[in-house]
Structure formats: C-alpha cells, structure tokens
Amino acid sequence: MSTIVLLAVTGLGLSALYFLIASGLSLVFGLADVLNFAHGWFLTVGAYAAYWATPKVGFAGGVAAGVLAGAVVAALVELVMIRPLYQRTIAQVLVTVGLSLAGVALFQALFSPDARAFPSPKWTQQVVDLLGARVPVKSLLLIAGAVVVLAALLAFLRWTRYGLIIRAGVENREMVTALGIDVRKAFTLVFAIGGAAAGLAGALSGVYFESVTPTGGASLLIFAFIVVVIGGMGSITGSAVAAVAVGLLQQFVNYYGSAGAGDVCAVALLAIVLLARRQTRQA
C-alpha cells in the first residue's frame, strides 16, 4: 500500500510539471493557432533565472524571478518573431524550432552543457508521512503549484474581460475580430501567461530533478505536447486531466515494468486517443 501511495504522489508531481508546461501551450494554440516549439525554452529560461536568483534573494524570490523571466521572454518572442508570421504555419514552426535550438546553444555557451545542481532549500528535500508512505515534499510542492495555477487560470478565463475575450477567440476568432476587439493584444497576453506558467515549471523542475540543464525544457516539451493533444487543444481542464493520466501511467509502468516503458505507454495512449476520436467523428 505504501508503495502505491508513493508512486501515486510522485506520479502526480510529474503530472503537475507536465500540466504547468501544457497549460500555456494549450492556450497559445487554442487562441493564436500557433504550434510553439520554443515553449520548452521558456521553461529553461525560468529554470536558469531561478537558479541564478535563488542564492541572492531566496527560494521564493528565485521562483518569482523564473516566472517573470518566462513571461517577459514569451511576450517578446510573440511581439518580435511570431506576430509577423500569423497565418503562416510552416514559417511559425521553422522559427520556433530554430529559436528552441538557438536557445539551447545559448545556455550551453553561458552555463556549459553540463547539469548544474539547483540551490533547493533543505525543506524541499525532506519527506513526510502520508497514508503510511514517506513521500517527498518536492512532489507535494509541484502538486500545490499546479493546483494554484489551474484555479487561477480558470478564474481568469471565467471572470475577467480578457479571459472572456480569450475564451471567445478560441471558439470563433473571426467573430471576436468583427466585434471590433483587438485580438492581437490577447495573443501577447496569452503568450505571457503561458511563459509565466512555463517559467514556474522551470523553477520547480529544478527542485524536482535537483538540477538544471540547457536541454531540460526540450525533453519535457515532448510530453507536454502529448498532454495537450490528449486533453484537447485549447482546453485547460482537459490538459489537467490528461497530465494526471500521463504522469501516473509513466510512474507506475516505469516502476512495475522496464525502464522507459512508461514513455512508450504515454505515446501509445496518445495513439489510442487519436484513433478513438477519428472513429467517433466518422460515426
């Protein structure tokens, strides 16, 4: 029983990390119709900002620095590189893939390609008793962060003016534009929100993995895309449910099966969901 509880909590911690990345990715694609392959780089920016700031201003200040860095970089990327390329899907993909590769090279030049130990506070490395299992505090921290972000995003989308514009734009962008609303401002805001969530994921991933690497964001982005597709493009709650499914599946299969089998099962789950949707539409 204790093993199942431990696997469930650590799996939910991984799910929380996937959700933090996927939430912004889902919003950006749902509203702006941009498949942003540079989104993982926003996570790396947040991770290294937190890595640099934590020894100077403390853990909370380091996390805030990661969130701010992710939001600012994402907004700048939208304004400078993405905005001129709306309605040009292939160009968007090429630019964001190139930016992701260039971003990894930049951090390798600045910090070296090797992993660096993240300056986590001691309390994040402790364990607590939960239902007979000793679970790591860092997993609980990730779960709490994801729950707060999920609640904040749902409240923003439901009860704020820009949230209503974003929801309407996801459903019918042409109608919103016809009403005289400048959707482009909403695009920049969505990129900033997504970058902030990715920056938070980067800061907390440093705690979770106890290190930061230039390629960390790119490797996590693969599973974030799986979560977004399973959960439905533009659906925050769908991404949350899909993240839980993928994270738990990976954790349990990797433990009870062979190493890496969980990753294969996550891809298999994606294939099953896509095939099921296709059959439903044909019916």
Word description of this protein:
It contains 10 helices and 4 strands, in the order H-H-H-E-E-E-H-H-H-H-E-H-H-H. The protein is 79% helix and 4% strand. The protein is mainly alpha-helical. It has one domain. A hairpin with a 2-residue loop joins strand 2 and strand 3. The model has no long low-confidence stretch (mean pLDDT 86). Helix 2 crosses helix 8 and helix 4 crosses helix 5. Strands 1-4 form a two-stranded antiparallel ribbon. It has a two-stranded antiparallel sheet with strand order 2-3. It is a multi-pass membrane protein. Keywords: Amino-acid transport, Cell membrane, Membrane, Transmembrane, Transmembrane helix, Transport.
Supply database-style keywords:
mainly alpha; two-stranded antiparallel ribbon; 4 strands; 283 residues; 79% helix
> Oligomeric status of the shown chains?
single chain
Q: Give the CA-CA distance, first to last residue.
A: 42 Å
The radius of gyration is: 19 Å
Q: Helicity level, as a percent range?
A: over 70%
The biggest sheet, with number of strands, parallel, antiparallel or mixed sense and barrel status, is: 2 strands, antiparallel
SSE succession: HHHEEEHHHHEHHH
Mean pLDDT: 86
- Total domains: 1
Shape: globular
